[in-house]
Amino acid sequence: MKVICTQENFKKAVFNTEKVTGKQATLPILNNILIETSKGRLRFLATNLEIGVFSSIGAKIEREGKITVPAKILSNFAANLASSESVSLEVSGQILIISSGRYQAKINGFDSEEFPIIPEPKGNFLLLINSAKIKEAISKVSSCIAFGETRLEFTGINMSFGEREISLAATDSFRLAEVVIALNESGLGNEYRDFIEKENSIIIPSGTMFELLRIIGNEEREVKIFIEENQIFFELDGIQLVSRLINGKYPDYRQILPKSFETRVVMKKNDILRATKIAGIFTDNRSGEMKIKINEKKLTINSYSQSYGENEAIFEEDIVGPDQEIVLNPRYVMDGLGTIHSTQVAILINNSHSPVGLKSISEKDGTVEDGYVYIVMPVKN
Questions:
Q1: What 8-state DSSP symbol labels residue 361?
Q2: Rounded to whole angstroms, how far apart are CA atoms 328 and 286?
Q3: Same structural domain, 250 and 262
Q4: Closest CA to 359 of 345, 378, 341
Q5: Which residues, 6 or more positions from 61, have their beta carbon under 8 angstroms from its beta carbon?
Q6: What does pTM read for this prediction?
Q7: Buried b / exposed e across 236-267, counting CB within 10 Å, b at 16+?
């Protein structure tokens, strides 16, 4: 193999693939990146057998070929190259020779035939979604993922499909978040409606979604989604991410999503966030309790600890509905407030035993916005 490419493309390809590799004592080949020429382009591939990443870049190909090299060595070398120089890659036996300006490295490689085959989609894309929308959705629900949970379903993000929308949801049984993304007709693949007749939801591993966030970065672009044979594929700008899906059935969380709320409080997000943080100081542990009391058009937040003392914060706010009193975990409330980006937030309550909802308030007309809800279960006394 002998190819020449730009340094910018070379670095991006390396950095987009090397993160899925790791220390694999039983399968050392998985600590490597496969570099190969394919269909007139230069491809970089990495996998940990759960997630696989392809990154394809344009290059001047003088001689076809492929090799696998240690990801850490390749990444560290690429990171320290001077800018603006082109990069030449040449394979001699089992050695990759990289030259860029004044710098040259010879990296000992391995037989590429040992590298596992990473699946690629066979059909057309199912969905086309703006990267900013899916990035925001993942960021909003990720705080509710149950890490280390024995039930594998709770360790992933549920994606469910509707006629013109998809929903992303996560829960750890103490709180739940759901984001609804509207789909344009142009974003629906030819087989989308046939697919949703057979499959109305899938569970995507959280690690896959975090890797997708990393790949998206701060660039706004279109993301193609393919779903085939219990696998999901994300494709954007020459990068392809593939992952297994989690087997199992996600709980019917919509049963606990209240269809309406008796009491609504609208207040500044920073006020409720500050009061919640202070309440968290005066609790004994991570599962501490703070009481929210609504009466006489006032909202009171207080917490008490036999060890530390007590605190109270009182607000006169826009309150509609009957008086309420409910006990919540302050940490869960803070996590939810952190996902709301409006300056005001709606606190939605039915009674002391039902979930509390947090929603954003429109900056334009002050109405409660649909499309995202964060639910917190009350603490049982």
A1: B
A2: 12
A3: no
A4: 345
A5: 2, 3, 37, 40, 42
A6: 0.92
A7: bbbbbbbbbbbeeebbebeeeeeeebebbbbb
What is the per-residue pLDDT across 252-306, written as a single tens digit (0 to 9) for each? Answer: 999 889 989 999 999 999 999 999 999 999 987 766 899 999 998 899 999 998 8
Q: Which of 212, 228, 254 is the last residue of a domain?
A: 254
166-195 residue pLDDT tens:
999 999 999 999 999 999 888 999 999 999
Average pLDDT over residues 310-322: 95
The C-alpha atoms of residue 56 and residue 227 are separated, in whole angstroms, by 21
Which 3-state string (H, E, C) describes 55-95? EEEECEEEECCEEEEEHHHHHHHHHCCCCCCEEEEEEECCE
Q: Is residue 149 domain-resident?
A: yes
Spacing of C-alpha 290 from chain mean position = 29
Domain identity same for 8 and 24: yes
Q: What are the structure tokens assigned to 63, written together?
A: 């001689």
* Domain identity same for 141 and 184: yes
Q: What is the distance between the alpha carbons of residues 116 and 304, in angstroms, rounded to a whole number?
A: 57
Which residues span the domain enclosing 148? Answer: 127-254
Q: Are residues 194 and 206 in the same domain?
A: yes
